[in-house]
Amino acid sequence: MRSSVAVTLTAILAALAIVITISRLEVVYPVLPYLKFDFAEIPSVIAFFLVNPFSGFTTAVIHWLFLIYRAGDVLGPTMKFAAVASMLAGFWVASSVGRRIAKNPNFRAYVIACCLAGGVLRVVVMSIFNIVVLLLIAPAYLDYATYLLQQFFGHPLDSGQTLTWTLIFTGIYNSIHVILTIVPGILIYNVVKRRFPGIESFK
Q1: Which helix (H) or strand (E) holds 38?
Q2: Cβ-proximal residues to 103 (8 Å cutoff; 6+ apart), any chain
Q3: pLDDT per position as a tens digit, 115-141
Q4: 3-state secondary structure of 154
Q5: Closest of 179, 192, 163, 135 to residue 42, by C-alpha
Q6: Which residues, 6+ apart, have CB-to-CB distance to 175 below 8 Å?
Q7: What torsion do the CA atoms of 89, 192, 23, 55 make, to the nearest 10 degrees?
Q8: Please, what's the b/e burial string for 80-106 (b: 16 or more CB within 10 A of its CB; e: otherwise)?
């Protein structure tokens, strides 16, 4: 893909992520309502598959910088960026391994492998990040999580139980988020490929 086309597509998809954020296209995760299924992650996935991995990461970085500017806070946007970046890194690992195993891998198998690798890496990375944030950086969030989980379970929890259940439910959230992000991303990718068959992809 020519560099000018790649840059243009990356800029368009990064702008789309910003528009989705401004439009608040998100769904609250009912167990821990401070977590939201954010559809602004989809453009980064589209950029990854339609252009190349670098485009996907660049789209995520631009969106991250916008979130910092908009929120005036670093922690929340950085946690979001870590989730997206780790997911894309998992996609890249699956893509690299797939190419070494087969020159022309089945695209469906490729997508499934990306989903699994992206999901596992995202859950692992975000579990580590959450431990650091909840115990060291912003322990007040652990108090809030305690309140939310006690409402969910209907009985008191100690700090150890709260941390464990927070990590479990956050891991479930991140696993679901990968599916909710990659499925529409691939559907849109396929539509674009059919409409513009000259666009090179599957980098």
Answers
A1: strand 36-38
A2: none
A3: 999 999 999 999 999 999 999 999 999
A4: coil
A5: 179
A6: 119, 122, 123
A7: 30
A8: bbbbbbbbbbbbbbbbeebeeeeeebe
Distance between CA atoms of 61 and 55, rounded to whole angstroms?
10
Do residues 115 and 76 make contact, with C-beta atoms less than 8 angstroms apart?
no
Beta carbons of 168 and 176 less than 8 angstroms apart: no
For the record, the structure tokens of 56 come out as: 């996907």
CA gap 137, 120 in Å, rounded: 24
DSSP 139: T
pLDDT digits (tens, 9 = 90+) for 132-191: 999 999 999 999 999 999 999 999 998 899 999 999 999 999 999 999 999 999 999 989
Separation in Å, CA 133 to CA 4, 66, 118, 192: 40, 22, 22, 39
How many whole angstroms from its chain centre is CA 47?
13
Q: Could you identify the residue written with the tokens 């652990």?
A: 142
| Cα distance between residue 169 and residue 145, in whole Å | 11
Binning the chain into helix, strand and coil, the percentages to the nearest 5 are 80, 5, 20
Please check whether residue 46 is in contact with residue 185, taking contact to mean a CB–CB distance below 8 angstroms. yes
Token duo for residue 200: 């090179």
Rounded to the nearest 5°, which phi and psi values hold at 28? -70, 140
